[in-house]
Records
---
Amino acid sequence: MEFTAQQIADYIGGTVDGNAQAKVHTFSKIEEGVEGALTFFYDPKFEPYIYQTRASVVLVPSSFQPAQPVQPALVRVDDPRMAIGRLLALYESMKPKRTGIDPLAYVAPTAKLGKDVYLAPFAAVGDGAEIGDGTALHPHATVGANAKVGRDCILYANATVYHDCIVGDRCILHAGSVVGADGFGFAPTEEGYEKIPQIGIAVLEDDVELGANACVDRATMGATIIHKDVKIDNLVQIGHNVEVQSHTVLCAQVGIAGSSKIGEWCTFTGQVGVAGHITVADHTTLGAQSGLPGSVRKPGQTLLGTPPIDPKVFARSFAVYKTLPDMAIQLRQLQKELEALKLRVES
């Protein structure tokens, strides 16, 4: 399917410089542009590529002024990244959706399937489970007994929704992700560890996405809740009874211990660790590998380190930290000189 530069501009609210009838049928990075491709640039460091690319149409910021002639048609928009995201979503939505139940899929007699559901070979839907209209289960995806999965969801290969858990509409569970495994609950005894039954559930609200091998544990009692539009990256661990408010982003290898409450519009970058039973205020950003042992009460902060502090303070502290070995040598030398001076004074 082809689109002209003018059609693209009309869809995303942009304006065209150059050939408004230039046609595109694919996407590319600007440095790898080919004829018939749509690409974009927003960072000035990529500007040199715009004079070299063979792409037919380029999305650029509205304020962009070329320093030399350009060959592709330019579509000017306020935010090229947001615009390319809308176009990619449109492109994805136009792909034909598979429907139907493969003979090798398993559907329990008491399960309920909506319209236009797709079940791939070896997908499984348990007793009393409900699958909403237009949802797709890829090979070995499993929805347990009495679980509910909403409309237009995608469960990729080996994604698992345990019994009784709830997944809202338009959710995406990537390969190997798990909703509702037991929370990590054990009571130490003289003989070892006694398992504490995890009788609660896990809930994903609408438009949540789980990356590959991400895990959201079921609650000990009650529910672990991931609110609407939360985006969770690969290899993230959410403990039992955690609650993550809407629009929060959790990047790769984040771990959140049980019963913590995370606010709205937070961003936890890679390998952030959060202790249990704490609260994090709205609009909190935690830098990579930060460790959070206690609550963050003030909203809107950006923090880094363990325990997290202001990034500028962290940078100054780390500059000192790097010099500690030399400072230790100097301190020992000063101590020796001070002792020698004391002996001289006393004598």
---
Amino acid sequence: MILSLSRRYALLDRRLLGGRVYLGSTLWAAGHFGLGLLLWGLGSYVHRTGVDPRLLLVTLTGVCAAIALRRAAPGGALALATAVLAVDVAVGPSMWVAVSYGDLLYAACVWGRRRLAYGVLVVVGAGLAAAIVGAVYAYAAGWLPGLLEVLQIIGVFALAFVTPAIGGMSVREHHLRAELERERARQIERMAELDRRGAVAEERGRMARELHDVIANHLSAIAVQSTAALSMREPDPELTRRILGVVRDNSVQGLAEMRRMIGVLRDDDAPDLDRVTPRLSEADRLVATARDAGLEVRMTERGTPVGLPVQVDAAAYRIVQESLTNALRHAEPRRVDLTVEYRAGTADAAGRLVITAENGVAADRRSWAAELGTGAGLTGMRERVQLLGGAFAAGPADGAPERWRVRAELPLDGGAGRAGARADTDDDGGTERGA
């Protein structure tokens, strides 16, 4: 039913004659003319001596023509109707011309410009005040027999002119409010679309980092071991068996991590993120894999380990993973020094987790400083650190081109920082786990 009414209204709102009139206004004007003609035939007008009543049909036609223009040109229609009303009062007046004029006041307040609408309201208010003053004066001068006639004059003026103007202003305000609500809804829709696009882009970036970290680490170990196997000049069954074992272990681990990630992406209801989120405490597995691949790893822990937030824990694990992967690819000699330091927080600053990986660089690869940050691994580590509000640096260690250093500082939450501050940490001490 609502859809049917909407279609009918859209049909009545159709423009005619190049937009000069509307179909609904034209039909409304025809209805006014028909009813006015009926009332004229019944004698609903003031008879004046020496005035042909057929002149009132001319004024009725004029005001109905103005009604046909009330949507396309509300100001011009009101001006035409005002002139017609003045003529009708001079030769009549007739009742329906006054009623039709009230309809044009309503149309000017609804569809006219803001200045026109408020101007009409001011003029009608001034006219009501003048009608009250005139009726009271006429009663005081004895021209009106009683107060009933005074109230009738005021009531007729208010009913014919004031009520349509106030009704039109009320409808205008409702239209403006509805338009504001529609604009607000459009703004909210645009903001929601922007948020959705931002969320999609952020999720794509996160998935790209996770996939790179998972695939690059295991495939790098596989590639290094495969190269070692292919470069053997003398067949060594024991070495070949050990290499194939490393290749198999890395393949299985990579496939397992990929399955866990895909399982989380497919589970829309309640994914168990803790089950698949890597932790820094599991870095021993990365170190063992790197050692099996032929990389000498010297890992040092400093400070008192504290509980890490999930995001910091996962980012630290991935940074260690990517650092070992890069060292496995490019370190010369094949050795890397990995340091994990827990720095206690203070009253003004939270604690920090500092991860440093340093290894040598072959002479033919010391041009890295000119390509700092161009690799996907370094970009991924930098993005992880920046998302957590930390600091990241990668480049030659202390300006020495033969040494490459990756350093990441990750902020800890206040509770973990205060817990770590209870212990007396010695920067020079620590637990070393060397190859």
---
Amino acid sequence: MSEVIVDFDNSWKQGLEDFFAEFLELLFPEIYGLIDWDKPIESKEQELQQIIREGERGKQITDKLFKVSLKSEETVWIFIHTEVQNQEDTEFVERMWRYHYRLRDRYQERIINLAVLGDRRKSWRPSSYHYSFGGCEVVFKFPIVKLVDFEEEEKWKELEDSENPFAVFVMAHLRTLSTYGQLDERKAWKWTLVRRLFEKGYSREKIEKLFRLVDWLMALPEDLEQAWLTEVIEYQQEGQMPLLSHLEIWAKEEGRQEGRQEGRQEGRQEGLQQTVRVLQENITDLLESRFGSLNSEVQENIANLNDIPRLRFLFKQAITISSIEAFQQLLEEG
């Protein structure tokens, strides 16, 4: 069975956006303990883009930047880089140093650099940048986490026992890598991890976010995706987990519930209309959660859409799009 393309970069960007605190608590507990979590957390996406040169923006680089308040009442910017390439990146440590001094120089704030190494090379653990010439020397060190270490039996058990929702995302990342070319096995792991979301008793909001992330990360070909989703829907119908609205969307759109409607055209049309309504609501809710209240023009454009493939496309775009202006441009392009 052929491999499918996995979008590690955007999956991680959204995962860090949705679960920043849980990410630090799980992987960088010392940094987590320094932060006053009662104070607001600011995502500094625009500021990060300003320090990335034009020539670097085309690269698949997973970077996030947050501004937090410490318990000491100081403020600090936390720069996070996730490295998931399997080929060695000779520019990695220099890039970590370069972004550090650019941020420091532009904003005059304290900067913490953190690196997550998500590749499978156990021996590749870059954690410092060193430059020396003509009596001038720079030594820059930064904390790293090597995700492949969690595949060891004891550490994997820690992930399984953890109540931290980001542990599920780390498990999904590792099992996506380990099942390259073994997509039946990936499907089995995807089902196991999704079922785990409900067994852990997370809130509905966390379940929906994690479901989306795991589904996004653990990409499957269409036939296996349909088989997996059928299992999830049947599990849902047995009353084992709360309703996830976008599961209903996919189920109705793909015709997985049409057999239960005894071929009644009226019921099918009603189901399609419900699908459109729920998709519209999901897009609106997602955009409002990311960018605040929407202007009337955007709301009206969404409300006027009834093409399900178009709505599905816009829903996926709403997850990662950089601004409401960019989303509005998508709507206008039609």
